[in-house]
Amino acid sequence: MKDYEKTGVLSLKDLKLPSKKQLEKGVAILECVQEIPCNPCVDSCPVNAISMKNINAVPINDFYKCIGCGKCVGLCPGLAIFVVKLKDGKALITLPYEFLPLPVVGEKVQALDRNGKTSGTGLVKRVVKIGKTMVITVEVDEKLAMAVRNIRVDR
Amino acid sequence: MRVDGVPNVRTCIVPLREGIYVDMQDKLAELPDAKFVGEPKKKIRTDVLVVGAGPAGMCAAIESAEHGAKVLVVDENQCVGGQLIKQTHKFFGSKQENAGTRGIVIAKELENKLRELEKNGKLKVMTDSTVIGYYEGDKRHRFGVVERCSDYRSILYEVDCDSVIIACGAMENMLLFPGNDLPGVYGAGAVQTLMNVYGVKPGKKVLMVGAGNVGLIVSYQLLQAGIDVDRVVEAAPSIGGYNVHAAKLCRCGVPIQTSRSIKEVYGKEGVEGAIVVDLDEKWQPIPGSEEKVECDTVCLAVGLTPAIRLLSQIGAETEFVPEAGGYVALHDDSMQTTVKGVYVAGDSSGIEEASTAMIEGKIAGLSAAISLGHKSKENQNLLQQYRKELEKLRAGPFGEKPRAAKTKITKFMEKKR
Hints:
The complex is a heterodimer.
Chain A: H1 3-7, H2 20-25, E1 27-30, H3 40-44, E2 50-51, E3 60-61, H4 71-75, E4 81-87, E5 90-97, E6 108-112, E7 118-130, E8 133-141, E9 150-152
Antiparallel strand pairs in A: 1-4, 2-3, 4-5, 5-8, 6-7, 6-9, 7-8
Chain B: E1 2-3, E2 22-23, E3 42-51, H1 55-66, E4 71-74, H2 103-119, E5 123-126, E6 129-135, E7 141-148, E8 154-166, E9 170-172, E10 185-187, H3 188-197, E11 205-209, H4 213-224, E12 228-234, H5 243-250, E13 256-258, E14 260-266, E15 273-278, E16 291-294, E17 297-300, E18 304-306, H6 309-314, E19 318-321, E20 326-329, E21 342-344, H7 354-371, H8 377-393, H9 400-416
Parallel strand pairs in B: 3-4, 3-8, 4-5, 8-21, 10-17, 11-12, 11-17, 12-13
Antiparallel strand pairs in B: 1-2, 6-7, 7-8, 9-18, 14-15, 15-16, 19-20
C-alpha cells in the first residue's frame, strides 16, 4: 500500500515531474494519481497537452506542449492541478482556492505544504475566477516550488 | 413544538416566513378537530409515477416525459434536487455527465427542465408530498400520496399509474458507541443539509468519522463554512474516497488517520469530546492507544443503506448484497424489478455516485416510456448508449464495488427467471 492511501498526502515520488528547464517555462503539474472516472482537464487544455487513454485513466501532461496557462487549474473538479514557474530565484505557484476571505494582489499570505503546514510566506501576484473556483498565483522562494500547494489568508 | 398554534409540528423543517409564531408545547396536544375521514380523496391518473426527485428521479422523469409518457414526480422535501442541492463541489465524470459542474448547478438545470416539461403539460411535480403506501389497483399500480399544505392541512391522493420508478435514495448508517445519542452527533448528510441548505453551522469543532468520499467532501465543506475539523478517522487501513478529495483536506491542515475509529463520546448536555482508538488488522481496538479529542460535534460518514421499504411493500424481490449497501430490489439492465412496471434507480438500487444515478434514472425513465408503447429503433439505440456510458463510468478501480454489486444482482435475477 502506498503512503498516500493511508494519509491522503502525496509525495514527489508519486508524481510525474517536469525538468528544471520545463519549470522555467512554467507547466501544469497534475497531482491526480488514481484512476477515477473524470476528464475535464483534457477538454480544458487549449494546446492538447493533457491526454488520457480512457475516462478512468490517469491524465498525463506533455510538458513539451504545455504552455502553463492554468485553465485546467480552475476546471479540475478534484482541485489537483498546479502550475509552477521558476523565475529569478522565485517560484510562481498557481493554485485553486475556494475559501473566504479572498486574497488580493500584493497581499502577503502563509504558504502551506501538502500537509497544511506553513513552509514560508507567499506574495499574491494574480487572482482570477474560473467558475466559482479562484485561481491564485503566489510567489514563493524557489526552493519551495515543489512544496507549496495551498495558502492561508490571515485577516 | 407548536407552529402558529398547531401542535406536533416538525418545527425544524418548517420554512420561516414573516410573522410565524413558534412556541414550546409543554404537554401532549389535544387531537385537533380536523376532518380526516370526511374529506374525499383526490384521484390522479398518470402513465409513470416517479418517487423521489433526486438526481436519479429527476433524470427518470425528464427522460420518460420527453419520450411521450405522462409523468408525476413526488418528493417529500420542500424542493426538488435531493442530495444535489447541498453538493457544492464540482462533479467528476465526462462532459455528458456534467463533469466540472457543481451539484447545486446540476440540480437547478434539471429543475428547469422539469418546470419546462410541466409548463407543456407533460409532467407534474408534487413536493412536500409523501408516497405512503401501495394499494390494490386493478391491474394498475396504485399508491396513496399525502400532500402537506402550507396551512398544516393534508390532502390524500390516489395515484394510478402503469409504471412506477422508485428513486428514493438511501438512509445514512449509524455507528454503535457510548454517547451516540448525545446532541451533537450527526450523520454527515444531516450536517451538509444544515450548512448548505439551511445556512446553519452545526458546531465549532468537528470530529469526522469515515474517510469515504462523503466524509472527505463534507469535511472540506465544513472548513469552507468556517468550522474547525479536528481530524478524520477511518477504521479501514486505507482511505476509501478519492485521493484528490483527501489531498485538498490535508493541505488545509486536517489530518486523516486510518486504522482508527471512535470509541465513545462524552458530555453532559451535548458532545464535549470523543475518545478515538487505534484498530489492529482485525479491526479490534488496541488497548492503551486511546486519545481524547475535544470537539462539540461528531459527524458520522460511515456509509449508506438503500431505501427499499416501498419496493418491499410492492412485492419486488430483494436480496442482501453487501457491495450495494444492504438489501436491494433485484433489477435487470432496464432497471425493472421482478414486478412488471416497477423500476428502481439511483441509491435505492445500490449505493453509488450521483453521476451513475443520473444515467440509471435515464435508463429507467426511457425503459418505462418504451414499455408504454413508445418503442422505436431510436429509443432502443439510446438505451444502449446509456448502458455503455454507465459501463464506462464503472470501468475503473473505484467502480469495482458497484460492478460486483450489479453482477450479483444480475445473477440473482437470472435465477428467478
